[in-house]
Structure formats: C-alpha cells, structure tokens
C-alpha cells in the first residue's frame, strides 16, 4: 500500500549557544524557532492542527508551556522524550499524523535548555529506579571497565577503541572528522562554534576520555528548531508552496537489536545494528541508496560515532571507514558532504532540538539556501539521528519539484501516468532484493527509457552492482542505455520478442557494451516473471 506523501514546507531555528549565555528561557527559544518556520511556510500559528515538542530535560507539559507563548488554539500537543532522537521522533509522529488523514498541517519542534559541562551536570537524579542505560553501561564494565569520565564519552570512546583494535583504524581518523565538522561550521551563522581548528589542535585538545579530546565531543547547548509539515492534498491546494516543499521520501524509526547486549561489543552497544537495520529498511522503502545521496546530516555526538555510522549506513564496507575519510569522501569535493552544518560537534547539541535542526539544514540545502556552505547539486539528502537507550532515525528527503526546483531532484514517474511496463519493473525490484544469484549473473547497470502512448515517457534505472541493488526512477550513471517502446518492452517480457531481435529490428536502441546489454534477458526471463502480461 502506497503511503500518502508528506512535505516539509517551512523551517526555522535559533542560533545554538553555550548554556545560559543568552539569558533566554526555553519558551523564548521555541517561540523564535517556530515563528521563523511559520514565516517560511507563509502560515500563522492558527493554521497548525497538531504539534510535537521534543525535549529531554524539563517537567511535564513543557511543550504546552512553550507553544502557549505563540497561541492558545486548543490543538493536540505531544511532548516527546526519546533521548537524543527526541526531535526526530517528533517529526516521525507528525509524518504519521499526516499520513493518517487526521490533519493537513502540523508542527514539529524541539528545544533544550542545558547546564554547562557534561550531561551528568543536568541533575534530576533518580536513585530509586533503574537507569534507562544501565544494561549499556554493563557492556562497558564487562569490556573496558568504568572510569571517572562522562558516561556518554566512555560509551562512544570505547566503541572507537574497539574499532581501532578490530580494523586498524587510526586515532587520526577520529580527529579528521572533528577537524572537518569544525571547518564546515565556519559558514553557519546558527552554529554554536564558528572557529576553524587545525588537525594538530584537535589531536592535542584537552583529554575527555582515553584518546578522545574536547574538540571531538559535542557540547551542551541551548537552542530550538522547528519544521512545518503538510499533507499532499494541502500542497496541491496551495501550489505556491510547491517550489519550497521538501518531500520526506522515507523515514524509519527503530530501536535496538538483541546484539546490543548479547555480543559484549561496544560498537553494537551504541546502536550499530539498529542503524544498519533501519537504514536497510529505508533503502528498500524508497528504492534509493547512499549512491543517490549528496548531503548527509549525521549524529556526531562524538567523533567515533560518525566514523562507525559510515559503515552502519552502508557508505562503505565494515572496517573501511578510515579509507573513506582518507579519500575525503565526507566533505566538499568528495562523494558526500557529511554535516555541512558543522554537526553536533560544532553546531551544538541542544538534545531535543537536534533531530529537528537536522531537518532544517537538509531542507535548506535542498532549497539552495545555505550560502557559502551550500552543497553543489544537492538533490537527495539523508538524516541520521540516534539516542542511546535506544532510538534511531534514518530518513531521506528531496525537493518536491515545480517551478525553481532542480529537474534532477524530481522522479520522472511522478506525473502519475502509468505504463504497462511498470509492473515488470516492480517485479524486477523485488527479484533483485531476493535472488542473490540473479544479481551476480547480471552485475550490470542499465538506464532504460520507455515511451508509451500520449507522449508518456519514463526512465528506469537498474543497478545490480550497487549495494544494495537498485531499481527506480532516480537518475544515476549507467553502463548500458536502452530506449524502447512500452509495447516492445512488454513483447520482450512475454517472450514474443527476444532482446537481440528487438535490437536488430530497430525496436530497441542500445548504447554501451552489447554483450552486457544482452544480460537484460536474465531480468526479463518470461519463465520467471510472475506479472500478468
């Protein structure tokens, strides 16, 4: 069943700042972020039908207290506490609300007003009950032991140590990530820090835990971020918003796998398998892969988490993140720009606001509004947000299309017109994810242009060399280009016309290696296709 589309139509955020440095309380911060998002969406607060507010530190109903500063409209307001993924969990709830049809315009916001220093300084100790992370701490105690250092720094620092021991990752690889993120933040006026640090400065910064220094750790912060989301029917009724609308192509929220405690691994303990699983679910849901992505906002609470997450997301094979870093594939000029905002390490980490702030940055990147930190040709964006305890989010975004949008960001099949061959590509998509031998036999990438009646044309891309394999409409480089009519393609799929016959008769045009092109027969074997033709 196809889900209704959901869009981000307005975003806003405060500058993230050192705790207590501005004198502003959390209702002031939320008001600033929400009003900016509403102005961006060209709406008023009375237009909002439901809202979520993410935060970690505070009493009950802080969401109401904050939003009441903007208006008392009687709408449902949900307070969301899901560790460092609180804000993005609120976005997930907003998406579900819109998909349910119970609202057309909703608000996701998040905030935090924190204390200086590590999270242990936030107070509110509850000594008479279980800690939400006591089993996570036990994994550390059983492996590297416990030390007088911030617990979260030990968690992620130990995961980094384990990675170095298992895969030969160097201490400098973590420092390179922090160096990159501080450098990216120089051009972000909303960032808590906007100072460039040399690699030596990162390496020689004050030690926080083991090898990890101050500049490789996210700070505590005050700040708020907000996003206005709408339904497809609302966008259709307000076409003036389409040029700025960002589609949430897919959004996965998940929790830990059994391995988080069972394997006595600090890498697994910080949520590696959780993120790997939901990322794979996302790629299956959207038909997109990391190869389709240009820009990523990734939860770099500590530098080791960014490095380890490269592998969990499938940006590189397990154990090879150091090579990705050394190639520069995580910054401008490389394969992806990861954390152009400066990430949590430099932009700041007001916990409840972080997941929403990632949506703000990615929306602005896709809309081309990021000035000197703008990622060139940003068409597809990925979000990664994690909370120890645990909660994980991985999501994909792209510009909705319309006037002023990049044609490359639009899906060619988005017009809604259907061709007979659509069902064949749907089946090929299913087969390449379930038949490993088929993927190995074909091992080729195709770009197939299908022309139908009334001028309808669709472009399909099949890449069996990608990991995971890909079938969809998102444009990408291919080895073989095929142009064929919808009718001839269906004849090939039914067995009435062989691919080489179609080529010789001029019914199918090919560009590329002919021998590889003939591997199309493996995908269109009439004996294996289940679709009714």
Automatic annotation (TrEMBL):
Catalysis: reaction(s): propanoyl-CoA + tetradecanoyl-CoA = 3-oxo-2-methylhexadecanoyl-CoA + CoA; an acyl-CoA + acetyl-CoA = a 3-oxoacyl-CoA + CoA; octanoyl-CoA + acetyl-CoA = 3-oxodecanoyl-CoA + CoA; 3-oxohexadecanedioyl-CoA + CoA = tetradecanedioyl-CoA + acetyl-CoA
Organism domain of life: Eukaryota
Record-level GO BP terms: lipid metabolic process; lipid transport
InterPro entries, per database record: SCP2_sterol-bd_dom, SCP2_sterol-bd_dom_sf, Thiolase-like, Thiolase_acyl_enz_int_AS, Thiolase_C_2, Thiolase_CS, Thiolase_N
UniProt keyword terms in alphabetical order: Acyltransferase, Cytoplasm, Lipid metabolism, Lipid transport, Lipid-binding, Peroxisome, Transferase, Transport
Domain annotation Thiolase N-terminal: ranges: 6-232
Domain SCP2, residue spans: 425-525
Gene Ontology molecular-function annotations: acetyl-CoA C-acyltransferase activity; acetyl-CoA C-myristoyltransferase activity; lipid binding
An example Gene Ontology CC term for this record: peroxisome
Xref: Gene3D superfamilies: 3.40.47.10, SCP2 sterol-binding domain (3.30.1050.10)
EC number: 2.3.1.155, 2.3.1.16, 2.3.1.176
Keyword rRNA processing: no
Subcellular location(s) of the protein: Cytoplasm; Peroxisome
CDD domains hit by this protein: SCP-x_thiolase (cd00829)
Database matches in NCBIfam families: PRK08256.1
UniProt name for this protein: Sterol carrier protein 2
Organism (species): Mesorhabditis spiculigera
Lineage: Eukaryota, Metazoa, Ecdysozoa, Nematoda, Chromadorea
């Amino acid at each position: 069943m196809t889900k209704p589309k959901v869009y981000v139509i307005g975003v806003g955020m405060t500058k993230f700042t050192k705790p207590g440095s501005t004198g502003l309380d959390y209702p002031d911060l939320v008001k600033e972020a929400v009003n900016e998002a509403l102005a961006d969406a060209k709406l008023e607060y009375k237009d909002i039908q439901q809202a979520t507010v993410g935060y970690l530190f505070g009493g009950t109903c802080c969401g109401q207290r904050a939003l009441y500063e903007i208006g008392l409209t009687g709408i449902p307001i949900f307070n969301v506490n899901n560790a460092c993924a609180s804000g993005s969990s609120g976005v997930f709830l907003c998406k579900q609300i819109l998909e349910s049809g119970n609202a057309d315009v909703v608000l996701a916001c998040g905030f935090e007003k924190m204390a200086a220093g590590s999270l242990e300084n936030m107070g509110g100790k509850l000594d008479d009950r279980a800690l939400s992370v006591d089993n996570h701490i036990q994994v550390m105690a059983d492996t590297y032991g416990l030390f007088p250092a911030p617990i979260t720094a030990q968690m992620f620092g130990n995961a980094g140590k384990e990675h170095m021991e298992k895969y030969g990752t160097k201490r400098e690889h973590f420092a390179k990530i922090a160096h990159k993120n501080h450098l990216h933040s120089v051009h972000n006026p909303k960032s808590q820090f906007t100072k460039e640090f040399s690699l030596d400065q990162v390496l020689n910064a004050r030690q926080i835990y083991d090898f990890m220094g101050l500049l490789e750790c996210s700070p505590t912060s005050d700040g708020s971020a907000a996003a206005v989301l709408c339904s497809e029917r609302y966008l259709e009724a307000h076409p003036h918003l389409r040029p700025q609308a960002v589609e949430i192509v897919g959004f996965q929220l998940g929790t830990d796998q059994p391995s988080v405690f069972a394997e006595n691994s600090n890498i697994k303990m910080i949520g590696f398998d959780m993120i790997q699983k939901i990322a794979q679910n996302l790629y299956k849901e959207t038909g997109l892969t990391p190869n389709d992505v240009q820009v990523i906002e990734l939860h770099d609470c500590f530098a080791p988490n960014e490095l380890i997450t490269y592998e969990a997301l499938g940006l590189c094979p397990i154990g090879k993140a150091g090579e990705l870093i050394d190639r520069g594939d995580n910054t401008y000029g490389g394969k992806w720009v990861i954390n152009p905002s400066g990430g949590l390490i430099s932009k700041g980490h007001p916990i409840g606001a972080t997941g929403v702030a990632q949506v703000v940055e990615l929306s602005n990147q896709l809309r081309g509004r990021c000035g000197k930190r703008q990622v060139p040709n940003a068409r597809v964006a990925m979000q990664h947000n994690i909370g120890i305890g645990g909660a994980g989010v991985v999501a994909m975004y792209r510009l909705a299309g319309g006037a002023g949008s990049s044609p490359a960001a639009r899906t060619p099949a988005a017009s809604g017109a259907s061709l007979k061959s659509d069902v064949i590509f749907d089946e090929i998509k299913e087969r390449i994810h379930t038949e490993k031998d088929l993927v190995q036999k074909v091992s080729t990438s195709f770009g197939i242009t299908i022309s139908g009646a009334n001028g309808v044309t669709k472009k399909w891309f099949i890449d069996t060399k990608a990991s995971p394999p890909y079938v969809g409409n998102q444009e990408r480089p291919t080895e073989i280009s095929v142009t064929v009519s919808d009718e001839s393609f269906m004849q090939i799929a039914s067995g009435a016309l062989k691919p080489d016959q179609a080529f010789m008769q001029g019914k199918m045009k090919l560009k590329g290696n002919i021998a590889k092109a003939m591997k199309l027969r493996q995908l269109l074997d009439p004996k294996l296709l289940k679709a009714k033709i």
